[in-house]
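Retry 2 of 3 after timeout on previous attempt. Resubmitting structure tokens to design endpoint.
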């Protein structure tokens, strides 16, 4: 704690000396930061400073917060709190979420985000009460407690060709479903690492699903009106105008696809950069009244596995491979924490596709035994996700689909 005497003592200090002390402290802190940075990179302090300034200029060119805080007035002692103020805008500064919070405050925050108390709109109430994105596959939705939950990080793992991307596309289209029909009525963002979404076949599949969703909502409205008219004794015939009155005019295949935003990423660096810059894009859409309710990463493992295989192909020694593996694990752990926080802060579902890899099992004597297929990315990632959904082709020894075998 700082006493009043300390405050008086500082106030009586000569202003000129005070400015010098502040400047020296700032320079010392900055040199210490560059020293740590240089140690991580394995280069000199001057080189680390050059790298930091280069990163700073690149961030400034795209209107992102700078890494190095500006301290132009510190040397004159005019604004000794400027460094502290700039830390709020410094992307390298600790995020406020790392500070302790009580369990009660966390629950109150979740309740305020998920169930707003604003009663000015029935639409707001109806959409706030819906906590899952339905897949329209009833057994799957029942298994997941109603669908893919908002504010959670869900992994879908499976062999190639099993239908992971197909399911993800269906979820993106279903995210556009109006709240009055059990949907979350939001937009979807896709990080396309493998190119399945960006080619012509991906567009065709999305279009077919969008047409099917629009037709489903229209037929559902027709059935509701027919049932209502039958109860009222007015006959079951329903006119087209009556059906249109229950279906939002904006629910067309075109408008459904306009709410699905696809980012094509070609390597690990672009994938990481795109993901970490998503909050700005999400805020822009939220301000326009079209909040994002689903983020799909298809697939998170692809570029990491490509980079890993390249390091072995290039003949790197075991030490470099070990360092690369540790770096990948560290990056994945940070990424999982970021995605989990993103899902919670923006009240959306994050669905990450994952591949399967072969794991060699060992016996009690640590000798290699059999093998089995497990989701890639390792144990650290597995412990970071909220839910894991593993899908596979249905196989039967008799060639028939006998549900008793499940």
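Retry 2 succeeded. Sequence:
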């Amino acid at each position: 704690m700082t006493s009043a005497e300390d405050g008086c003592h500082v106030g009586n200090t000569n202003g000129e000396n005070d400015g010098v002390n502040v400047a020296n402290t700032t320079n010392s802190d900055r040199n210490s930061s560059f020293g740590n940075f240089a140690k991580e990179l394995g280069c000199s302090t001057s080189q680390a400073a050059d790298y930091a300034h280069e990163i700073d200029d690149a961030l400034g060119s795209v209107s992102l917060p700078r890494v190095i805080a500006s301290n132009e007035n510190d040397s004159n002692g005019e604004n000794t709190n400027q460094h502290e103020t700039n830390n709020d805008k410094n992307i390298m500064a600790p995020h406020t979420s790392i500070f302790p919070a009580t369990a009660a405050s966390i629950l109150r925050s979740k309740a305020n985000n998920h169930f707003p108390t604003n009663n000015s709109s029935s639409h707001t109430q109806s959409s706030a009460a819906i906590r899952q994105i339905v897949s329209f596959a009833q057994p799957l939705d029942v298994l997941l407690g109603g669908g893919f939950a908002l504010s959670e990080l869900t992994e879908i793992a499976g062999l190639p060709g099993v239908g992971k991307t197909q399911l993800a596309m269906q979820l993106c289209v279903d995210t556009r479903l109006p709240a009055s029909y059990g949907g979350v009525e939001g937009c979807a963002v896709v990080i396309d690492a493998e190119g399945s979404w960006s080619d012509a076949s991906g567009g065709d599949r999305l279009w077919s699903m969008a047409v099917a969703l629009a037709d489903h909502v229209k037929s559902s409205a027709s059935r509701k009106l027919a049932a209502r008219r039958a109860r009222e004794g007015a006959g079951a015939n329903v006119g087209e105008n009556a059906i249109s009155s229950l279906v939002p005019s904006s629910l067309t295949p075109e408008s459904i696809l306009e709410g699905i935003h696809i980012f094509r990423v070609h390597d690990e660096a672009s994938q990481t950069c795109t993901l970490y810059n998503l909050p700005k894009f999400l805020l822009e859409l939220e301000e326009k009244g079209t909040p994002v309710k689903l983020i799909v990463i298809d697939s998170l493992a692809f570029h990491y596995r490509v980079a890993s295989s390249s390091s072995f192909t290039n003949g790197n020694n075991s030490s470099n491979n070990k360092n690369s593996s540790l770096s990948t694990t560290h990056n994945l752990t940070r990424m999982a924490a970021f995605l989990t926080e993103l899902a919670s802060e923006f009240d959306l579902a994050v669905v990450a596709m994952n591949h399967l890899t072969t794991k060699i099992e060992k016996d009690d004597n640590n000798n290699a035994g059999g093998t089995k297929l497990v989701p890639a990315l390792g144990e650290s990632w597995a412990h970071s996700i909220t839910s894991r959904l593993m899908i596979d082709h249905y196989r039967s020894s008799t060639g028939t689909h006998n549900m008793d075998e499940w």
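Attempt log closed. The mean pLDDT is 74.
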